[in-house]
């Protein structure tokens, strides 16, 4: 026999009624309200202790559970207990907080959460394995702690101006930490790995040794260093112990054997006794004891204010620029050489490749001699073609892709196109003639012409006109009234003007020859008329009527 509820309690604040309800009508029990406990038998019942009853909900758990709720004037409490009477869940609500706890006594776990107007607190623990989690959060701070009895614990704390993560071992000793506040960042641990690009601004202090696989240092002060292999592009030192220091030994592709520094400068030795010295006079080159030349800063002898860089060559020496045209070439090919004339005076420059001029070339009244051809990018090509022997003939060929203009005083005087030449001024032969080859030995199929000079002359339209200056083709032609004929009526004397246009022109030589033919026809007619008139005179005389 178990005594569950045996009374009803009523005060001025609350009233509780003890009730036992059956699941269905087949379940039987006896209950005496307000009196003693009677005998009772029940199956699958719901027991409530509350001021208001709820609908029945079937308990699917094999364990027997008991729930209880208490409401007071300042708080509300709810409990759930197992068959042994141990509390498995408890909730307590007050005016300013809510506390919820879960317990599993067999597994040794518990969860507790406290919510209030001051913050939130959460605790999860497992007593059997020795782990727990604590977390607290307020309006100004946050803290989390994860604890393991064997492995130690981790604590995270955060406030408005700081943030920290601490990892402790099982005895409470600090193993590693990240601590951040307004002015400091502290990383502590036995091994710290930074993966990615790292930039340090400001002073960097290193206590202990540093191992840098590949590094670049802008400015460094090193008190004591042991460097196995170093490549320094710019080095400034106060002193070097010893007169000569061998500080580079790299066999530069098998050419240089070593580099030394002595009291006169730096010397780079080459095979075959050649070497270069870098000293106060710049870069000096030697072949044994013979000086070849040097490269260094210089000034003009006539005007010392002119400063520059000078390439200087000793007598009977030369300087060249060479290149390999193919990677498989064994030797370099000269492109330009200074001081390579026959006399070796050094007063010549030999160019063994194209010379591409991108600007003017000023010869200072000197000539260009023995040139096979000079090609200009925009102005055409000038070619000298000397012949062999003592007597030389030279032709000056002026060529253009489209044509050639001859300009004087910024005015075009002549234009030469393929097949035609245009003159924009009078052609003064200075007493000489305009001639054309007409030797019969240069001709064949010579025969009398069938052309009719008088008929052609009668067809011509001799007119007065002015050139249409709105037509760009007439640029440069004279102004005012002109006198001439129309090419469209010139017949066989008509041709094209050439120069890439399609305007008609007059072949003046044909006009001359047609005029000559016309005169011959007129002369023949005059002679025939004179003969006829003479015959008429004789006939009249014979008749006595003359």
Q: What does this entry look like structurally?
A:
It is built from two helices and 35 strands. 8% of the residues lie in helices and 37% in strands. 1% of the residues are buried. The termini are far apart. Among the domains are: 140-188; 451-543, no CATH class. It has a twelve-stranded antiparallel sheet with strand order 4-5-6-7-8-9-10-11-12-13-14-15, with no helix packed on it. A seven-stranded antiparallel sheet has the order 16-17-18-19-20-21-22, with no helix packed on it. Residues 1-25, 27-57, 242-256 and 378-389 have low confidence and may be disordered. Helix 1 crosses helix 2. By secondary structure, it is mainly β.
Q: Could you list some keywords that capture this structure?
A:
single chain; 546 residues; mainly beta; twelve-stranded antiparallel sheet; 8% helix; 37% strand
- How many runs of DSSP E, i.e. beta strands? 35
End-to-end Cα distance: 196 Å
The residue fraction in helices comes out at under 10%
Strand order of the largest sheet: 4-5-6-7-8-9-10-11-12-13-14-15
Beta content: 35-45%
Average pLDDT level: 71
* Count of DSSP H/I helices: 2
């Amino acid at each position: 026999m178990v005594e569950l509820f045996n009374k009803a309690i009523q005060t001025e604040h609350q009233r509780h009624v003890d009730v036992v309800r059956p699941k269905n009508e087949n379940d039987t029990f006896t209950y005496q309200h307000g009196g003693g406990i009677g005998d009772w038998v029940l199956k699958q019942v719901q027991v409530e202790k509350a001021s208001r009853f709820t609908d029945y909900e079937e308990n699917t758990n094999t364990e027997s559970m008991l729930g209880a709720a208490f409401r007071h004037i300042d708080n509300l409490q709810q409990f759930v207990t197992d068959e042994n009477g141990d509390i498995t869940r408890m909730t307590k609500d007050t005016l300013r907080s809510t506390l919820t706890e879960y317990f599993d006594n067999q597994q040794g776990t518990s969860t507790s959460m406290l919510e209030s107007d001051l913050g939130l607190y959460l605790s999860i623990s497992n007593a059997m394995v020795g782990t727990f989690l604590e977390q607290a959060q307020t309006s100004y701070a946050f803290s989390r702690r994860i604890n393991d009895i064997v492995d130690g614990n981790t604590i995270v704390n955060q406030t408005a101006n700081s943030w920290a993560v601490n990892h402790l071992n099982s005895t409470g000793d600090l193993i590693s930490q990240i601590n951040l506040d307004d002015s400091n960042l502290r990383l502590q641990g036995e091994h710290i790995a930074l993966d990615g690009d790292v930039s340090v601004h400001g002073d960097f202090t290193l206590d202990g040794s540093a191992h840098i696989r590949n590094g670049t240092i802008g400015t460094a002060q090193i008190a004591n260093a042991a460097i196995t292999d170093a490549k320094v592009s710019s080095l400034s030192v106060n002193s070097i112990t010893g007169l000569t220091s061998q500080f580079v030994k790299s066999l530069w592709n098998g050419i240089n054997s070593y580099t030394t520094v002595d009291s006169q400068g730096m010397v780079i030795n080459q095979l075959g006794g050649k070497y270069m010295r870098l000293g106060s006079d710049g870069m000096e080159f030697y072949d044994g004891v013979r000086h070849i030349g040097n490269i260094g800063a210089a000034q003009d002898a006539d005007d010392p204010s002119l400063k520059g860089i000078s390439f200087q060559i000793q007598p009977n020496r030369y300087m060249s620029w060479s290149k390999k045209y193919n990677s498989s070439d064994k030797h370099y090919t000269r492109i330009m050489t200074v001081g390579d004339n026959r006399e070796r005076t050094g007063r010549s420059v030999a160019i063994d490749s194209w010379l591409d001029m991108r600007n003017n070339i000023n010869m200072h009244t000197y000539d260009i001699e023995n040139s096979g051809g000079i090609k200009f990018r925009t102005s055409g090509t000038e070619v000298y073609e000397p012949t062999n022997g003592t007597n030389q003939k030279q032709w000056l060929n002026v060529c253009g892709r489209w044509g050639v203009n001859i300009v004087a005083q910024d005015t075009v005087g002549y234009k030469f196109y393929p097949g035609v030449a245009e003159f924009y001024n009078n052609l003064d032969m200075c007493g000489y003639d305009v001639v054309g080859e007409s030797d019969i030995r240069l001709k064949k199929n010579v025969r009398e012409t069938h052309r009719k000079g008088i008929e052609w002359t009668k067809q011509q339209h001799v007119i007065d006109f002015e050139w249409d200056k709105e037509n760009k083709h007439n640029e440069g032609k004279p102004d005012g009234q002109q006198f001439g004929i129309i090419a469209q009526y010139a017949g066989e004397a008509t041709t094209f003007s050439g120069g890439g246009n399609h305007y008609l022109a007059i072949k003046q030589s044909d006009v001359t020859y047609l005029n000559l033919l016309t005169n011959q026809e007129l002369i023949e007619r005059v002679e025939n008329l004179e003969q006829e008139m003479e015959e008429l005179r004789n006939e009249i005389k014979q008749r006595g009527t003359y």
